[in-house]
Amino acid sequence: MKAGSLDSQERREIHSKRRVKQLAIGALACGMALQAGVALARPAVQGTADAPTARTAREPGQPVIDWDQVLLSIVRTPGAQPASIQSTRNFAILHAAIYDAVNSIDRSHEPYLVSVHAPRDASATAAADAAAHAALLGLYPTQRVALDADYAAELSQVPDGDPKNEGIRVGEAVAEVVLAIRANDGSNVTTTPFTPGSAPGDYRPTPPDFSAPVFTTWRHVTPFVLHSGHQFRPLAPPSLSSHAYAAAINEVQSLGSATSTTRTAAQTEIGKFWAPPIQNFWNEIAQQVAMAHHTDLATTARLFAALDLSLADSAIAFYDAKYTFQRWRPVTAIRMADTDGNPATVADPNWLPLAGITPADPSYPGAHSTISAAGAEVLASFFGDHQRFSVTSPALPGVTRSFMSFRAAEQEAGLSRIYAGVHTRIDHQVGLELGHDVAAFVLGNALLPERDDWAVDGVRRATESTRGVLRRAW
C-alpha cells in the first residue's frame, strides 16, 4: 500500500478517532463562546436528529459562489490579506463554516467540525449566508462595512420568517465554533528570521530583490484534514551531481530566462498568465463549472469545502517539504552552477528569470503544481475530468485560456513556473504527486456521506468520551 493511503477499515477507525477529537474541540470552543457571552446552539449528535430533508436540493448553490467571490475580492485588495497568513487557510475556514452550516440542515453528509440542531424547515441559504458573513468578519474585521453590505444583499433574497431566522442562528453558531477551533492553529506564530545555508544546493534569498522568506513556519500550522504536514512528504530531491538535476536546471536555464531565445510566444504567455496566487484560479474554475452544472446548495457547499480544505492542507504540505529540503531556486542554481560539482551544468552569473522576481521560499516542490493537482483532483471527483472551461488572469488582462479538462489546466499551471524561470521540472512533477495525494486523502476522509452502519456508532463513542467536556461547556 502506498505511504499515506488507507483501506476502508482504517478510514473508519481514523474517522471515529477524528470525530472524538472534533467533538472535544468543538465542546471546548462552545465553552469559550459561552464565557464570552455568545450563546451557541447545542451540537446535534449525528443519527439522532431529523432525517435529511430535500429542502437544500431545491436551493441553488449561488450563495456559496457569491461568498467565494467576496473572499477573492478581499485577498486581491492590497493590504487586506495579512502578509503572514496564507489565504488558503481563510478560504478553508470560510467554506468549512458554510458547509457545516448547510449540512446541519441538509444532514446528508458527515459534518466537518460541528453540527448544530436545526428545525426541518430552517433556511439553508440563510445559514450559508450567516456562516460566511460571521466567518469573514472574524478573519477580516476591517472589512465590516463591505461585508455587512454583502450580507444584507444576500439575505434580502431569503423570505422573512422563522425559517430564515433559524438559518441565521445555525450559520452564526457554526462560524463561531469553526473560528474558535482555528484560533490557535499556529498560523499567527511569529516567525524567526531565516538563516540560509551556504553549501551548494542550499536555499538562500534570490536576486534581484533578495526578499526574506515569510512562511518559514507554515509547515507547523495544524492541518484541516491531514494528520500532519509531513504525512505525504516526498523523498529528497535528486543530488546536485545527478543527470536528473542537470537536465532540470538546463531546461529552466533555457526556457525560463528573461532573455530566452528558445521559449515560444505561447510559453511566454503561459509563464506570465499563471503568475498570480494559484489558489485564486482554482476557486474561479470551481465557480465556473459549478454554475455550468447548476449544482444545488448542499453540493456546492461540499464542493468548495473539499476544494479549499485540500488547497489549505496542500499549502501546509508543500511548505513542510520546502523547508525540510531547502533546495535552492533556479536563479541561484544557474548563477552558482560552477559550485554544484556537476559537469553538465554551466554557470551564468547574470541570469534572471522571466518572472523577474522569484518567490521567497525554497524551490522543491512547486506550489503551483501542488495546488493545481489538488484542485484538479477535487473537481474531477465531482464532475469528471473532461470539462470545458476558460480562465482569465489579472496578470494578462484580455487574455483567456480555454481547457477541455482539469488535468490540462493542472499541467499548464505547473509548467508555467518553468517558463517563468522560478521552478524546475523536478519541482513540478513532485508537486503534482503531492497535491494529488493530499486531495485524495481529504476526499476519502472528510465530508463523507452519512453511513448508519458505522458513523452513528462512531459518533456515539465520541459523544460518550466527551460527555464530561460537553457538560462543562453547556
Structure notes:
The chain is mainly α and 474 residues long. The protein folds into two domains: 17-187 and 450-473, Vanadium-containing Chloroperoxidase, domain 1; 228-445, Vanadium-containing Chloroperoxidase, domain 2 (Orthogonal Bundle), CATH 1.10.606.20. It has 16 helices and two strands. The chain has helices at 8-35, 62-75, 87-106, 124-139, 144-155, 162-182, 243-255, 265-273, 278-293, 297-325, 330-335, 367-383, 406-419, 425-445, 455-465, 467-473, and strands spanning 389-392, 400-403. It has a two-stranded antiparallel sheet. It is elongated, with a radius of gyration of 23 Å. The relative contact order is 0.16.
Rg over C-alpha atoms, rounded to the nearest angstrom: 23 Å
- Provide the CATH top-level class of the largest domain: Mainly Alpha
Q: How many β-strand stretches?
A: 2
Shape: elongated
- Number of separate structural domains: 2
Biggest sheet: strands, sense, closure? Answer: 2 strands, antiparallel
Distance between the termini: 44 Å
Name the helicity range. 40-55%
How large a portion of the residues is in β-strands, by DSSP E? Answer: under 5%
Uncertain stretches of 5 or more adjacent residues: 1-27, 32-54, 453-474
Task: Quote the CATH topology of the largest domain.
Answer: Vanadium-containing Chloroperoxidase, domain 2
Strand order of the largest sheet: 1-2
Structural class: mainly alpha
Mean pLDDT: 87
Number of helices in the DSSP assignment: 16
CATH architecture of the largest domain: Orthogonal Bundle
Order of helices and strands: HHHHHHHHHHHHEEHHHH
